[in-house]
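Re: that chain you flagged

S.,

Sorry for the slow reply, it's been a week of failed gels. I finally had a moment to sit down with the sequence you sent. For the record, here it is as I used it:
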Amino acid sequence: MIPMYYPPPESKGGWRVLADADSVRLMGEIDQGRLVSAWEYSLHSQSEPTEFYPAEYHVPRANSSSVLVIRHGYIVGEWYQNADKNTVWNVYSCTKSFTGTAYGILLQNSTEGKLRKRVTLDSPAYKYIPEGHPVTDARKRKIKIRHLLTMTSCIKGENSGVFGIHFRSPPRGCGPFEFALGRCPTVGGKWVSKLTGDPGTRFGYSDPAFEHLSLIFYDVMRREIDGYLKEKVLDPIGVENFVWDRIGGDGNIGPHTLSSTGIHITARDLARFGYLALNKGLWTGRQLVPSKWMKMATEASQPLNKNYGYTWWVNTAGTCWEDVPRDTFAAMGFAANKCYVIPSLDLVVVRIGDGPWPWNDTAFLRKVMSSVL
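Prediction finished late last night. Pasting the C-alpha cells below so you have them in one place:
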C-alpha cells in the first residue's frame, strides 16, 4: 500500500499526530497501551559486552533517546528521554542508507545518459578514484561499485578489528581517506592496505570500504553527496533539521562527505526518510528515488549475507529478525540508532539515542508489532 498523505515540513505543521487512545485505535489501528511497552523496553534496555565489539564500543544504556512510530501516515506513538522533537542525534551508520539513496539516483542518471561519466554497478571502483593509484593490493582492481554498496569488497572492516574511520587530528599525509585507501594506519596500528580475499567472495562490514563511495561520487559528479542528496531528496521531503559531517582536508585528501556515518538528524526527520522508502521513493507525486533502486536496495543483494541489501539491512530470508515480516528493512547505526520500515504493516519505526549498544532489534520490533490491530 502506498499512502497518499505526505507530511509538510515541521516548520509548516509537520506530521499529523493521533494523541488519544481511541483515535490511535480507530485511525492508526494500533493498541496504544501495547505500543507503550516498546518505549518502555527502549527506555530500560541495557546491553552486555560481547566478544565481537571492543570494550570501548560497549554502551550499557541510553541517557537520551526517542521512539517514534508512524502508521498509515500518522504519528501513533512518540516518546523522548532527556530530549524533545527538536533534538538532533548522530545516527551513525544509518547514514549508509542515505549514501545508497544518492547512488540509486546517480546510477539511474547514468543509465539515462545524464552524467559526464558512465557508471554502473559493475564499473571498476578504482576507475573513479585517482587518489587510490597505485593500488595497495592488485586485487583492488577487481572491486566493483556493487561490492562497495553490498559490503563484499574484501576491504578490511569490523571482522578484522577495524571499527569506523580514524580521523581525529590526523597528521599530514595520513587522513581518513588515506587510511581508507590503505596508505597509512590508524593510531592503533590497523592497516586496510591488503584485502581479505578476492572481491565478491566474502561479506565484511567495512567503513573504510564504504568511504570509497564518497571519493567515487565526487569524481563522477564533481559534487559532494551531502549537498546533492539535500537538493534531490532531503529538501523535497521536508527534512529541515540535520547536519552531515565532512572529513579530510588540511593537507590530506578532502574534505569530502563522510559517507559511512556522520548524519545528525531529529527523530521526526529520520522518519521522513523511512516514509520515503516505504513509498518506494515517491513523494507528493514525484519519483525522487528510482523505484527500481528502492526495490533492489531493500532485498537481499548477494548470497554471502542474505541480511544485507544495497546499504539497507533486510529480512528477505527471514534471518535478520525472526518472526518479523520478510519485507522489513532498516537503516541501522551504532548506539541503537534505527529506522525500521515494514511495508506490509504500513509502519515506520524510529528509535534513536546515545545507547545502548549492542541492541536487540527483534525484541523491540516484536513489542511494536504486538500493538498492531
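What I noticed first: The chain has a mean pLDDT of 95.

Talk soon,
D.
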